[in-house]
Structure formats: structure tokens, C-alpha cells
Design brief:
2 domains, Alpha-Beta Plaits, alpha/beta, four-stranded parallel sheet, Malonyl-Coenzyme A Acyl Carrier Protein, domain 2
């Protein structure tokens, strides 16, 4: 069994998709369609930068999605790979969940671009710059990360944002609380704690205004059942019901991304091959969760052609 995975924020880089757009008409058309939907030359920003503008949440989120979907469209339209025959499940890390749902037909491409633009703006404006922060705990599992978060909170918000794999957990919350967590992490048993260069504290209760904003946007959005089940970040279970998926996407803004559990549950369900479309971020996490799994990262036209040949 195979699952298609879609990366989240942090996988963006100036130059992303440029070579692919030259090599694949299907990929080129994805970037053009996203540009038109957003009335923004996002593809030029992705190709040429500047980096600080691309890293802005409102730009990074639709850009990462566009890159993943460009890879997926090239694979499906030019490589002849049909999702329902090639993969039994899809999953995405944070914003990657939107990419996964687009690939599975829950949203069309223009709708997905609009949703992520709204999401990026809502998340950016939910917390004033400097009020919130995030940190990665390396060499710490979920239980230890929770202990560190509880000890560091001291009346402020400090929660687990991403349970990425058995040795990497991310905390999110008020800046002072995250700084306390970084200071005490090693003493409490973590190997290392690293401040993350993010513009807002994602996946924590401080994001509640963004969750409410997305709930409102979803009220005007049509959700179709995905062609294959989505392993959702919030439930770590396969989901196909549109109403449930809508509710979970709202919760996802403030809730922990249960990536480790999602991958472990897919492996337990019989998935032996994980294919990351548009990035090389999730593969190493998957290998730490399911060491025996086959992991493939698909980014270039050569990657796409090789995977299409293998699946066909």
C-alpha cells in the first residue's frame, strides 16, 4: 500500500518549481492558475524571491501548495498516474493537508489557493509580531515535550504544536514561555532546543482568532469527499466525510499536528511506501517513525518520470 504525502511550511525556497515549470506544461499551468486565482505573481516570487517576502506566511502557504500540486499534476497528467490506483491514502503536514485535499478532489486548485491565502493572513494577524514564538525540541518524545511545556508555561501559553517523530517535537506559545522552555529543555532531558524562525506561534490556542476566521471562510466553501481517505492532522485517522474534514481543518489551526501518530497508523494499516510530493522534509520523519517503510521524495521532472515508470 502507498500513501502520498504533502509538506508544510518551512519547505519553501527561492527557485522552487522553476525548473519543473520549464520541463512540464502541466506544472507550468498550475503556477499560472494559482497566479490568476490570487491576482498575484506568486510564481515570480517563488522563482526570484526575495526570500523574506516568500517566507511571509500569506505567501509561503499558497506557494508550497502550488509546488506540491505542480508535481502532482505533472505526475498524473503527463506521467499517467491516477491517484485512486496509485495511493490508498493522502496526508499533509499542517498546510500540506490542504494540498492533499486538493490532490484528492475535495477542493479545486483556485479554491485551495484562496483558502491558504486566507489562512496565512488570518494566522499572521492573530498574534502581534513578537508576542508568540515556536521552538523545536530535538531528542525529546511527546511525553518529555509535554513536561517541558507544562514547566515553562507559568501562566502563559506553552503547548505542543507538532509531534513530528519520536525525536522531534515542536512547542508553540507566548515568546517568554518558549524562551523558558528552551532554557530548561536540556536540563529536563532533551538533547537540544532550537528557536524556529517563524512569524507566528502556529498550532496553539493563541491562534483561536485564525480558527474562527477559517470557520467563517469554510461556511462559504464547498467540500467534496476526497477520492481516497485523508489521514487528518487532528485525529490521526483516515477521514472521508466532508463535514468532519471541515471541522477538523478548523480545529487544526489551534491543535497539535499528530504527524508521528498519523504515519504510525498508516503503517499499521498496511502502508509500506510513502511518497512526498514537492519536498524532502517529511521523508526523514517517516523513516524515524516507520524505519522499514520505503520513502520517496518527488521534486524534479526526473523524480516524476522515475515514479511514474515504477507505478506504471
Amino acid at each position: 500500500m502507498r500513501a502520498f504525502l504533502f509538506p508544510g511550511q518551512g519547505s519553501q525556497a527561492v527557485g522552487m518549481g522553476a525548473e519543473l515549470a520549464k520541463a512540464s506544461r502541466a506544472a507550468h499551468d498550475v503556477f499560472a492558475e494559482v497566479d490568476e486565482a490570487l491576482q498575484q505573481n506568486l510564481s515570480r516570487l517563488m522563482r526570484d524571491g526575495p526570500d523574506d517576502e516568500l517566507r511571509l506566511t500569506e505567501n509561503a502557504q499558497p506557494a508550497i501548495m502550488a509546488h506540491s500540486l505542480a508535481v502532482f499534476r505533472a505526475l498524473s497528467r503527463e506521467g499517467g498516474v491516477e491517484l485512486t490506483k496509485a495511493a490508498q491514502f493522502v496526508a499533509g503536514h499542517s498546510l500540506g493537508e490542504y494540498s492533499a485535499l486538493c490532490a484528492a478532489g475535495t477542493f479545486d486548485l483556485a479554491t485551495t489557493a484562496h483558502l491558504l491565502k486566507h489562512r496565512g493572513l488570518a494566522m499572521q494577524s492573530a498574534v502581534p509580531v513578537g508576542v508568540g514564538a515556536m521552538a523545536a525540541l530535538l531528542g525529546a518524545d511527546l511525553a518529555l515535550a509535554q513536561k517541558i511545556a507544562d514547566a515553562a508555561a507559568q501562566g502563559e501559553v506553552c503547548t505542543v504544536a507538532n509531534d513530528n517523530d519520536p525525536s522531534q517535537v515542536v512547542l508553540s506559545g507566548h515568546t517568554a514561555a518558549i524562551e523558558r522552555a528552551i532554557a530548561m529543555a536540556k536540563e529536563m532531558g532533551a538533547k537540544r532546543a532550537v528557536s524556529l524562525p517563524v512569524s507566528a506561534p502556529f498550532h496553539c490556542p493563541l491562534m483561536q482568532p485564525a480558527a474562527e476566521a477559517m470557520d467563517k471562510v469554510f461556511g462559504e466553501t464547498r467540500f467534496a469527499a476526497p477520492a481516497v481517505p485523508l489521514y487528518a492532522n487532528v485525529s490521526a485517522q483516515p477521514e472521508r466525510d466532508p463535514e468532519t474534514i471541515q471541522r477538523l481543518l478548523v480545529e487544526q489551526v489551534t491543535a497539535m499536528v499528530r504527524w508521528r501518530e498519523s504515519v504510525a497508523n498508516m503503517a499499521a494499516a498496511g502502508v509500506t511506501e510513502f511518497v512526498e510530493l514537492g519536498g524532502k522534509v517529511l521523508g526523514p520523519m517517516v523513516k524515524r517513525i516507520a524505519p522499514d517503510a520505503q520513502v520517496t521524495s518527488v521534486v524534479t521532472i526526473a523524480d516524476i518520470e522515475a515514479l511514474a515508470k515504477e507505478i506504471a
